[in-house]
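To whoever is on call:

I kicked off a structure prediction for a single chain this morning and the downstream step that reads the tokens threw a length-mismatch warning. I double-checked the sequence; it's 164 residues and nothing unusual in it as far as I can see. Pasting both halves so you can look.
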Amino acid sequence: MTETPSTTPTSTAPKRRFGGTPAQILGALKFYKVMAWATGTMLLLLTIELIVRYGFHSVLMAGGTDAVTGTAHGVGFVAVSDGTLAVTGGFNISTTVLIVHGWMYVVYLVADFRLWSLMRWPFPKFILIALGGVIPFLSFIVEGRVHKQALAEIAANPKAPKRY
């Protein structure tokens, strides 16, 4: 009596499915990478700005007029005392950094959501990636790991097409 090898696998691993084609995922990955680096850079500028603002009670201003002497102010740090600036008019670069980082973080979250949904990762991974935009230096670390993992999953599952 001869035994024939079993044709049914002993354990059936669930098939990996993506929410998009590999081309869509790679596009989302590139968009995420750009936004992670841009948001991380703006977060570092924001961190420096907050240290200057609350540690040295100064803001970065461009232009304007010195309120005491009446002379023109170029670009530089201006002291803040009792919530008022020593320069009138001008462009507050410190406030601009705050606003730009805030809006870039919103776009970063869109990039995070798009990649997360196309890869069909669990929800805690979305939260971890989102934290990359609010903790200094974390966006660079998370971006590197997410990028490697996404490429590895795409390569390991070439037959995991988009499912409608």
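Update from on-call: the warning came from a stale cache, not from the record. Cleared it. Sanity check on the structure: The chain has one domain: 22-156.
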